[in-house]
Structures are given as C-alpha cells and as structure tokens.
Amino acid sequence: MRLRNAAIAAASAVTLVLAVPGSANASFGEFRYTYRDAGAERTGRLVGPPSGACVNLAEATREEPARTPKNRTGATATVFPGPDCAGDGSYVLRPGVVAPEGSAVRSVVFS
C-alpha cells in the first residue's frame, strides 16, 4: 500500500511540474527591424521577447529610429515611435505582419 501511495505521489508531482507554464515569452519567432549603423543599414532582432514588458530597441536613437518592424512572433506587438513605449503614433502589429516601409520605431511591447 505504501509503494502504491508513493507511486501516486511521484506521478502527481511530475504532472504538476509539467503543467506549470513556461517563461513569459511573446512566443516563438523574432521581431525584426532595420537600423543605420555607421552609414550602413543593418537588421536588428528580438528573439522570444518578454510579454507585457516594454523593450527599448538599443540601436534606435532620436536621430535615427529603427525602421520597418516585422512581427514574426506569435504575439501581438505594439510599437512606439518614442522610447519607453511612449509617444504619439503607436500602432499594433499582429503576428506575421510587416509595418509599412519606413515606419519608425524606438520601443515595443508584446501581448
């Protein structure tokens, strides 16, 4: 009887561990954008960005914001022209959507 109870307890513990949600990522995929560095256009990436947290794009500056974001994650991305997810003109990119050519972005939050 004790062996049976121990087996049930072990199986329950394994089930509980497997049922705990994973990390708070926006999902699989990448959020891509272009930026200028030393006069050349480069591609920036956020891989598995966190949900609900504002992410400032490190390469984006006031003079040279990042451009043309591409939401290749499984979450909705709200992009902002200013740092710290502020500024007029924010817009939403559903999963798989590419913003219009030249759209400026300096920060993003995923939901």
From TrEMBL:
Residues 1-26 form the signal peptide. Residues 61-81 are annotated as: Disordered. Keywords: Signal. This is Secreted protein. It comes from Kitasatospora indigofera.
